Amino acid sequence: MRSNATESSNLSTRITYSSRNLWSGFLAGIGFIAFVDEVVFHQLLHWHHFYDKSSSAVGLVSDGLFHALNWFATIAGMFMVSDLRRRNALWPKRWWGGMLLGVGGFQLYDGTIQHKWMRIHQIRYVDNVFVYDVVWNVSAAVILIIGIMLIVQTGRLAKRETERDG
User: Fold this and answer.
1) DSSP letters along 14-37, please?
2) Which residues, in sequence order, are CB contacts of 58 under 8 Å at separation 6+?
3) Which of 45, 70, 116, 125 is the most buried (most CB within 10 A)?
4) How far apart are the C-alpha atoms of 34 and 29, rounded to whole Å?
5) Is the pLDDT score of 5 beyond 60?
6) Four-CA torsion 61, 65, 71, 73, nearest 10 degrees
7) DSSP code for 45
8) CB 23 within 8 A of CB 98
9) pLDDT tens, 69-93?
10) Can you tell me the distance from the alpha carbon of 49 to that of 62, in angstroms, rounded to the nearest whole number?
11) How crowded is the C-beta side of 154, counted as CA atoms within 13 Å?
């Protein structure tokens, strides 16, 4: 059983590294959802490429670059998690908030900016893409809202603790 002093020290360390917890989760979230998008929608289902305004060869190259960049985000996020664990500063609830913020933010950006505004690809090339757009963007918004709620909760806790100690 932990003592109150140990729990207070852990919370203090988590608060000190609060933004690193958030950013590591955010990067891991972007990397994770980009990986899922790449594997499921690009490779397994063949619904689209990252860039569909050219030939299939260009689409495949764009998928490769997209895949490489999402792994850089994932690796950077995981290195940050490793550092947080080493410092005994990993704050799982805040990290998950960042993760969901990254997942939902990326998915909403993809569904609105890339699909509709830039038109570099669609979710799926069918007559009634509206249904796919709604499911894609609403699920992104729900994930984003949950992530924001977790971040706000941990931010309030950090603020209370800082005010109490300071």
Assistant:
1) HHHTHHHHHHHHHHHHHHHHHHHI
2) 51
3) 70
4) 8
5) no
6) -160
7) S
8) yes
9) 999 999 999 999 999 999 999 999 9
10) 7
11) 24
Q: Pseudo-torsion of CA 138, 144, 150, 154, nearest 10°? A: -160
Write out the two tokens for 166: 């300071």
C-alpha–C-alpha distance, residues 8 and 6, integer Å: 5
CA 90, CA 24: separation in Å to the nearest integer?
10
Write out pLDDT tens, residues 140-166. 999 999 999 999 999 999 899 888 876
Burial 70-93 (b: 16+ CB within 10 A, else e): beebbebbeebbeebeeeebbbee
Q: What is the 8-class DSSP label of residue 123?
A: S
For tokens 């990254």, the residue is 102
What is the distance of C-alpha 1 from the center of its chain? 34
The CA distance from 49 to 63, in Å, is: 6
CB 60 within 8 A of CB 11: no
Please say if the pLDDT value at position 32 is more than 60.
yes
